[in-house]
Amino acid sequence: MAITETTKLSDLIEPTVFLDYVQEQVSNTNAFIQSGILGNDPILGARLLSPGRTVQLPYINDLTGEAEEWSDSTDITTESLTTGSNEAMKLFEDKAYSATDFGQLVTGAPVLTQITSRFAAWWVRQDTKRLLQVAESTFANTDIATAKSFGVGNEAELSAGNFLAALARMGDLANPKLVKLAMNSSAYFELRKQNLIDDFQPSDGGLAFASYNGLQIVQDDDIPVAADGTTAAYAFAPGAMAYATATPANGLVVDRDEYKNGGQEAIIQKRVTAMQVNGTTIDTSVVSDIAAYRQAIIDGKAAFKVANDPRKLGIVKYGFKVDPSFIVPTINSPKDATTPKA
Length: 342
What we know:
By secondary structure, the protein is α+β, with helices and mostly antiparallel strands. The chain has one domain.
């Protein structure tokens, strides 16, 4: 009797469920999402699948002007509000992995199972890398760097005074606006050495967290540190980063080719995403299209400019040096660590 039907990988992965699983795992394991630095922006997310390569994010400016004298001999005059728009660039991304039947049979390696179980973690690493690229590209703008950074390009030993000078770049919005502090683990241990860290137990059974000057510390060794200790820390306000992802039609495809390489299967995932610092807009004089934009953020070149008021940017960058004894190549820095861009 001939076999008429068989179970294939495409029968085992239901696209909607798998994509929901991937996004859930991205949210659960991304330190920047968990810390509140990154969060899916509903306004941005709702526009990602609309036509076009950019997203317009309109805003209404605050009330301005002075109070007027009121009496029964003059008319009350009214004023209008002004509006503006931030422009975000969409990135259309895909990733595909495949494996041959023969290779899996001979080695016994469950390659396709590994692919499906690790896809979410791979997107987490991409989002983390993107956040740091976007931050670097943002601070490559001279106006933003002048207004919102301290010590970058002239790094000195980490000190409490210089750290506060960096936080002062938020002006009177520094407290309580800045709430998270992202840094390489080497910087965390430098702060420990200088006895600058406070530990808090938020509740019974809750995980304790470390803070500096009331800012919760987020350690991430994707933030580069050079062999001489040069590194940077980023302080974030809630919602400082606009971020969203969306899955287009046919966002997950399981493709099987019975002829190629003796039979092989591929898992393809596609998404549309956007990420930038709230209060910035694409600098179209520098990046005129999506290819130029992608290359600019990869190279750390300026791709953004202030939309209206630098005070509204909820991010600060502090450049400094840590004790080289805290730097461990291949652990918290690359094997050939050089002066980092970020």
